[in-house]
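Late entry, written up from scratch paper. The run itself happened at the end of the previous shift, but nothing got recorded in the book at the time, so transcribing now.
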Amino acid sequence: MEYPVIEGELVTLKRVDESTTPLLHEHLQVRKFYREIGRRHIPTVKELNDDLFDDQMLFVWQVYLGEEERHVGYAGFVAYSGPPYIFYFSLELPVEYEIAQDCFQELVPLFFRDSEEPLLYTYVEKPVSEQLDELLVEGGFDALESVPAIDNNAIAVYAMERHTYEAYYGDEDDDETEELEF
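Output as recorded:
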C-alpha cells in the first residue's frame, strides 16, 4: 500500500516514513495510543520500522488540517495476526469527529481496493457517543454486540463488510459511485 499523500475534504494525510518514525515513536509513549495500534508495550523505533516497512502490518498517516504544518493526529490500519482494523488517534482533545470521518472516508476505499479482506473493523472506547455511533453506522459500519477476545464492556466493535463497501462505492470501474458519509 503506497499512497504517500492523500488529500481529503478537511485533512491531508501524509504517510509515516523512516524520517517521521522517531516522532511517531515519541507519540507512542502514551499507553492509549500504543494500545490503539495493537501493541501491549511501547514499541522500539526498530519494531516500528519493521511493522511499517518490512512486515507491512501497520500503515500510518500523519493527519494535517489543510495546509497546516503541525499534524493533529494519526490514522491508519493495523493488520497484525488478528482481523484488520482502521483507527484514528487525535493528539488534541476533544476529538473532532469530522476529522476522523474525513480520514475514514479517504482510507476505507484504499483498504478494500488494496486488500482482499472481507471485513474492516474499528474499535471505540465505551461509552460511545450517539454522534459517533451515528457517523459510523451511516458510514457503513455495523455495531457488533459481542466479539471474542475483546472486552465488550469497555470496547465497542464496528465492522464494515466488503459487500457493504461495494454497495456504497460500486466497482472500481463504475462511474456512478456514492461517497460514504462517516
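The longest helix spans residues 97-114.
(Scratch paper discarded after transcription.)
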